């Protein structure tokens, strides 16, 4: 990868980290205010009913990644006419998808919410109202997918970052608007969330007009349509099962624990998603490059960067989650004052699973880059789905509610082994190279950073907000310095040093011109 490309990826990553810090702070603060505004039961209902829809909203993410994959692949070949066809056919698919989604989910969801979920007496009509608003919002999200794919495919990551920041700010704003409206809080919040989705798609359509591929035309290419549909279909299988497991666990918790437990899971999920967004920045920034390399079939380059992405992603996730795991109880108490029951243990186990899952994302990109995903998605889906029946049996046996997240952690280890074996058979990935460059490295990093965090926990016991915030920041800085000094190899250090050096040089030149 040449220096201009390295600088672009680094710049894009920087934009995404700035965006993540802002959206993470807003999201975490918003959860506190929203929990206080809605109350535990209504907050639990919103997370539960929204989760039922989220099982199907995975379609939106599936087709977004599919569109982006084909856009970058054709851009890598320099085929502009083909790029236009990809966008137009993807819009056709999304229209059909949105219609199908609305019909299927409305029919199934009404029955499921009314007859299978544990909803407090008198709140069923509110839950159904939230459900209808969520379905409408999901349809909007599905239709936004091709535009988000175009923005990322063209590496306008700064725009993508600002859209996310604006979305987070609007969601914070409506939390303060809800009490002023003097209507039913839960219904008002659901309605305003729907308006944010509408504003989002209007902006994306307006912005994407500047890209040549977003020229609307009546294209038809049966071969390309079948490729898009086939790729997205298998991608849909994996993404739907992943979403089904995540939200299915939420339903199992509702059946055995009620909406108060869903509130605890919702709070934990908010923190986990914030950290996940933060850690995925490097992954989002490098996707266009890796997929374009696949067009030239340069496997050595792709494998090399897959190993590097895996190391960086795991290190970033681990550095972020460990302080939160260690000081989880203190964080939740200063954040929420009275956190929902079991929120702490839920969050700790979900963050362990997030660290494990960070090793899966680069492998997922590897399969998608080459478009060889059929066997991979079957294996991935089959192993992940095991979490649901095992979790249900665990609850029937009377195990603690947090056992469902422990089951997910165990299944994730099995899943990683199966996916690596599939990558070796289908793509020629060397298992010994992965073990040497990623597996052993990540194991060593875990031991060292866990020991560092536990040593700090022996001496620092924060109780107030600023004490907790200072402790978390201090731990992260110490981890970063320690990681750079001892845990990065020479190539990774050269990449970091080169980027910092280029930024300093560029800043100096700008200052000289200004003077």
What does this protein structure show overall?
By secondary structure, the chain is an all-alpha fold. Helices cover 87% and strands 0% of the residues. It is built from 18 helices and no strands.
Q: State mean pLDDT (0 to 100 scale).
A: 79
Low-confidence stretches: 503-515
The global form is globular
The amount of helix comes to: over 70%
* Class from helix and strand fractions: mainly alpha
Cα-atom radius of gyration: 23 Å
Strand count, sense and barrel status of the largest sheet are: none
Order of helices and strands: HHHHHHHHHHHHHHHHHH
Beta-strand share of residues: under 5%
- By DSSP, the count of extended strands is 0
From the N-terminal CA to the C-terminal CA, the straight-line distance is 34 Å
Helix count? 18
Please describe the topology of this protein.
Elements: H1 3-77, H2 80-115, H3 124-153, H4 157-181, H5 185-208, H6 222-257, H7 259-279, H8 281-295, H9 299-326, H10 328-336, H11 343-357, H12 360-370, H13 374-385, H14 387-396, H15 403-427, H16 431-459, H17 465-487, H18 490-514
Helix pairs in contact: 1-2, 1-3, 1-4, 1-6, 1-7, 1-8, 2-3, 2-6, 3-5, 4-5, 6-7, 6-13, 6-14, 7-9, 7-11, 8-9, 8-12, 9-11, 9-12, 9-16, 9-17, 11-15, 12-15, 13-15, 14-15, 16-17
In short:
The chain is mostly helical. 87% of the residues lie in helices and 0% in strands.
